[in-house]
Design brief:
The chain is mainly beta and about 290 residues long. The protein has one domain: Alpha carbonic anhydrase (Carbonic Anhydrase II, Roll). About 10% of the residues lie in helices and about 25% in strands. The chain contains 5 helices and 14 strands. Strands 2, 3, 4, 5, 6, 9, 10, 11, 12, 13 and 14 form an 11-stranded mixed β-sheet that branches. The chain is globular, with a radius of gyration of 18 Å. It is an enzyme of class 4 (lyase). Pfam families: Carb_anhydrase. This is Carbonic anhydrase.
Length: about 290
């Protein structure tokens, strides 16, 4: 299936060709980036309550998406508008390879989760894709520990129902904040880029959180081994693996860290020892258990 190869997307979607000076995603984050004191925590409205109705989990052949309906919105943290949250989805590697889209200092995490929100003034997605800041995407690295993440279980327990392309399943809504590193939500990176799947529109304000979501090895394996890019009745089933796009140059784009981000010694901004006090919270607070 050639459309699964990110390098060949430009043949079908010319906008996916990463031409010089185009602002494509994902990128590598150099930890020595400058800090922006204007980047405080974002306001995530409705993320801490259980939304009514039901959500829909879908295997679209490229990823597993959770469509979340209305009720949640993202604003603040340097965003100039309110954005309505519509879905989240995942990128992963294979049984023995990491698969986050963004990298930090060249390091790739096992997985990455994207929460996608559309600027509230736009009537539909195609209008938003014409706007350089039409979408706000919150990115979360996913790392692995030995204990199951109970909140992540709301999604991972449903994966067998959407193992094959085109399958959908109803999911009982849960407070999305339980899934996120709630004690470290003021520590993030910010830049302007693109969708990482066709049509690769340069329409995204990216917020990548420093502290990952922690899941178990078995929860990771459900993605890397048990999801397929093909329909159930396909003559040959193809595992859905390595569904991340390659890293793109920043081409002089501004890439900044939030006010509270932890940066290495010698990086712009506050000295690192002022931030060391946050580290125990990082480890205790991110399991979401």
């Amino acid at each position: 299936q050639p459309h699964c190869d990110p390098y060949s997307w430009g043949d079908l979607f010319p906008s996916c060709h990463p031409l010089l000076e185009h602002h494509h995603s994902p990128i590598n984050f150099d930890p020595h980036m400058p800090r922006s004191d204007s980047l405080g925590p974002l306001h995530l409205e409705g993320f801490d309550v259980t939304q009514p109705g039901h959500w829909t989990l879908t295997n679209d052949g490229h990823s597993v998406l959770l469509q979340v309906g209305s009720g949640m919105a993202v604003s603040g943290g340097g965003l100039l508008d309110e954005y309505h949250t519509i879905q989240l989805h995942f990128h992963w590697g294979g049984p023995a390879t990491n698969g986050s889209e963004h990298t930090v200092d060249g390091r790739r995490y096992p997985m990455e989760m994207h929460i996608v929100s559309v600027k509230s003034v736009h009537p539909n997605m195609s209008a938003a894709l014409e706007d350089p800041t039409g979408l706000a995407v919150l990115g979360f690295f996913i790392d692995v520990v030995y204990a199951d993440n109970v909140h992540f279980g709301h999604i991972s327990q449903m994966l067998s129902s959407v193992a094959y392309k085109g399958q959908t399943a109803k999911v009982k809504p849960f407070p999305l904040m339980g899934l996120l590193p709630r004690h470290n939500m003021s520590q993030y990176y910010r830049y302007y880029g693109s969708l990482t799947t066709p049509p690769c529109s340069q329409a995204v304000v990216w917020t990548l959180y420093q502290v990952p979501i922690y899941i178990s090895w078995s929860q990771l394996a459900q993605f890397t081994s048990q999801i397929f890019a093909t329909e159930e009745d396909a003559e040959q089933v193809t595992p859905l693996q390595n569904n991340f796009r390659h890293i793109h140059p920043t081409f002089g784009r501004s890439v900044t860290a939030s006010r509270d981000a932890i940066l290495p010694k010698g990086a712009a901004g506050r000295p690192i020892r002022a931030a060391v006090l946050l580290l125990p919270i990082t480890f205790l607070g991110s399991f979401g258990l």
